[in-house]
Automatic annotation (TrEMBL), chain A:
Keywords assigned: Electron transport, Heme, Iron, Membrane, Metal-binding, Respiratory chain, Transmembrane, Transmembrane helix, Transport
Annotated organism of origin: Euzebyella saccharophila
Domain Cytochrome oxidase subunit I profile span(s) in chain numbering: 25-581
Protein name listed in UniProt: Cbb3-type cytochrome c oxidase subunit I
SUPFAM superfamilies to which the protein is assigned, alphabetical: Cytochrome c oxidase subunit I-like (SSF81442)
UniProtKB/TrEMBL annotation, chain B:
Membrane topology: Multi-pass membrane protein
Known cofactor(s): Cu cation
InterPro entries: CcO_II, CcO_II-like_C, Cupredoxin, Cyt_c_oxidase_su2_TM_dom, Cyt_c_oxidase_su2_TM_sf
Broad enzyme group: translocase
Species of provenance: Euzebyella saccharophila
Protein name as annotated: Cytochrome c oxidase subunit 2
Lineage: Bacteria, Pseudomonadati, Bacteroidota, Flavobacteriia, Flavobacteriales
Cofactor details (free text): Binds a copper A center.
Organism domain of life: Bacteria
Catalytic reaction equation(s): 4 Fe(II)-[cytochrome c] + O2 + 8 H(+)(in) = 4 Fe(III)-[cytochrome c] + 2 H2O + 4 H(+)(out)
UniProt keyword annotations, A-Z: Copper, Electron transport, Membrane, Metal-binding, Respiratory chain, Translocase, Transmembrane, Transmembrane helix, Transport
Amino acid sequence: MSVTAHAHVDDHAHDDHGHHHKETFVTKYIFSQDHKMIAKQYFITGVLIMGFLGIAMSLLFRMQLAWPGESFSIFEAVLGKWAPEGVMDADVYLALVTIHGTLMVFFVLTQGLSGTFSNLLIPLQIGARDMASGFMNMLSFWMFFVSCVVMVASLFIEAGPAAAGWTIYPPLSALPMAQQGSGLGMTLWLVSMAIFIASSLLGSLNYVVTVINLRTKGMAMTRLPLTIWAFFVTAIIGIISFPVLLSAALLLIMDRSFGTSFFLSDIFIQGEVLHYQGGSPVLFEHLFWFLGHPEVYIVLLPALGITSEIMSTNARKPIFGYRAMIASILAIAFLSTIVWGHHMFISGMNPFLGSVFTFTTLLIAIPSAVKAFNYITTLWKGNLQLNPAMLFSIGLVSTFITGGLTGIILGDSTLDINVHDTYFVVAHFHLVMGISALYGMFAGVYHWFPKMFEGKLMNKNLGYVHFWVTAVCAYGVFFPMHFVGMAGVPRRYYENTAFPMFDELADVQVLMTVFALIAGAAQLVFVYNFIHSVFYGKEGPQNPWKSTTLEWTTGNKHIHGNWEGPIPEVHRWAYDYSKVDENGEYIIPGQDFVPQIVPLQKDEEELHH
Amino acid sequence: MTTVLILAVLVLVAIAIWQMTKIFELSQLKAETSQIANDSDNQTNGYLLFAFLIFIYAITIFSFYNYGKFLLPEAASAHGDEYDSLMLVSFVIIFFVQTITQALLHYFGYKYRGKKGNKALFYADNDKLEFIWTIIPVVVLAGLILWGLYTWTTIMDVNDEDDPLVVELYAQQFGWTARYAGEDNVLGDANVRMIDINKANILGLDEGDSYAADDVVVKELHLPVGRKVNFKMRSQDVLHSAYMPHFRAQMNCVPGMITEFSFTPIYTTAEMRQNPDIKDKVRRTNEIRSERAANGEPNSDPWEFDYILLCNKICGKSHYNMQMKIVVETQEEYEKWIADQGTFAETVLNQGDSDTAMNGVQ
């Protein structure tokens, strides 16, 4: 099968050029089937717009946490009737928390991140003219767009958006009497997510098929850049786990609208007994986290893949332990599907299950540790080019370690008892998956901006400012947060004033919020830099970072089909940086990297990595 | 006031960012337009990476110094001691690894900052190294897993040995109710379908179940010190979580099922109030509160330490204020207190006779 696919692409390489003379504005910019355009569409919709909303919401509720009950005109301006006289309402607080989580996890870091970089890089780095199915790819984006529209629309309805937490545990999410947001808001949330899942599946299937079938001649799986490995495995995890969330959502829709009792039983609310009998909310938790935990890695693996590539390029060194990195990605992917129960140690499920999940969870620390050590070794004795993308990659490793280590506490069922659902958890996952994945994404944008916008480069000085302010603030927000959690403060509390034991934590809350506001402002620097560079950015050289991978062999100008002539053939792995012969000379004199398209030189060994 | 403060901070930050951009621009000796890092960028950012390492250490020390005292005090339950030891050991390991790996990462970033003409080392593999850093986490984690699982099994083994006190914790939006099993120490059957608000049978006890008659329903949790308590949790509407941080205890309350947790309180409330950490905390908190009182702000009554039960699973609008006071006292005090509480028979069944008669007529 794969052979025929290769042949097909090669044969029609030149036919492709014939097609795009007919391109109109609509087919080029809107219903485009070109992977590069779709990548940009994902970035603008998923990251810039949804990311802006998600981060803005977090700033609003952080202000409420720091100055509980205080009146702010900004609240009144953006929340309207939900902030009478500028004081945030408790219901809308929960709505903001819920939608912030949903937007950031699913829209920004799943489809925004994977959609942008899988689409942009898979064909370019494996040497393909486009995705296996351009039409499916276009469909995937537009379904994503529709799900965004539905989610955003839910913010404007009378009773407010979903507010049961991004995990939407029933019965809270199932009963409009339990919470305002569980009415139409939750219906729209579920509809939006159902469309989102369909979009994600279409995208993932496309990525998997493309990587398996459309690699150029010589591009063995063991020569793939780690970015592609990460996107490929991420797509597989998505295909395995997202359908389970869809089934959970469907069953919840049934419970909500058609009176079934999958998740509900024995409920007495507002003076009456409901008819539900025999369901279990714990079942929902299992289904949700069967996706929810792999989801964490769906978010993180692409960021790690991007980091591997950027770190190696900018260190002018091969990534250390290429095969170990692949093995780690595979091990993480496999283990990620059997650890979901660590979110449920105290959910009421059998404690024996908790033991099993503790075991598998702590196992996942091993491949993660291997990855961290390999990154550090990659820096060792390098010739580090500290571009903004490189700094974000180093930053990712830093937050990945800091956030990952506290996972040892949360993954241990015993220790989880007292920190479960406290701010300790919030600090942990924001560092290890939120901030890390965002860093990976930013790194990717700075690094591959020339591939998105025809050779233009982003301003590096603004990039440095963006990185350093963000890096300091991320620790400023989330490091002290561990202490808030260890003090016993539960998450999703509208304010902590009802408990005198939390009085003295008020100052920490203010500190975290100030850091968060500054961090938010720093993201505007990025947005400005991005937009400015799109229009006024200076065109750089074709291969600005002196990288070995195939995407830099394409011209700056975008063409449908990526390469003018035939697709280049690959002769080596992607990490021949600073490789020398016996005499200590670079393989290509005067150049510290050997592109993948360069055949092995006389007497050169393709080391068995 | 705070609004002004925030605005001031934001303005200062904007200025700082602007200044930083300037510095970065000026640090390029020639007005070079290339957006690719050059030696001077590498130099500046290499130093900044080193500074960032110091920042990470500084914020760690700052947080421990200033916020370390906020951490929960010594555990007040029998199993809590083991919990705290495991936590401490895990933290020591974490901080050891954190200190070393962050140092390596940022130091390498600084040390090997790029310079034109420098040669990187082609170093793609080392099986021995990789084996070492695979096996070390394996061994350390194996130790933690074994210890953790042993403790977990002990904590979660809810059994009837040692004559435990049986107490039901009943959750609803947005409050807690406790039910003691009474003389027979057996909880009567209950289900939300048997709730009868008119008769104040708010927990849905089975009026025909003889075990229910001596049950005691209360709004404040009293526990005798040194006696094991087996909690049975129920919820009538949505998920809640019974979180008792001082006892290192937490369990979700799930509608449709009964969940369990068990612990033995080892310090009475009075003893805990004498704990030096608690005394400090109360003093600090009351300083804040007296300041508030002076400014005429709310939440300014002096505070006295009490154990507390919080809801720790999002349950709706007033989730943030769903709590119940827990009093741990001596056996005698406890007996005296429980004797003053009416049983289910006294408060509902007998007083409700007339209602039942009326229902019968209808």
